[in-house]
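tool=predict chain=A
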Amino acid sequence: MIDMTPYDSQMLKGLVSFLLLDLVAAETDYGYSLVVRLHERGFTELTEGTVYPALSRAEQSRWIDAVLVPSEKGPARKYYRITPAGNEERLRARAAWQRLAHLVDAFGSHPHQPESEEK
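tool=predict ok
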């Protein structure tokens, strides 16, 4: 498991949908497995209570489709797959994140120098 530097959970909330779209674009999967995959990538603060509502919002936005698949070990599982609209949103979100990260990095590397006070 990757050890992440502590981060602000509010920042992460804005990325949950993007992270889920990225995972589902790579592989059709069911909710709990997506939580496990997020944890394996270091996002251990993302719980089922965060992921399932985000999946529901993504489904309502038509970014993902859900298909019930029978399970040999219990009730049918809801598998999620990305839609063309979801892929467009994933690419848009990735580009937006990259632009924002670039701006934040540039902001931090050029600290504001206070103007000298004249006396």
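The chain has a mean pLDDT of 87. The helical segments are 9-13, 16-26, 31-40, 48-60, 84-109.
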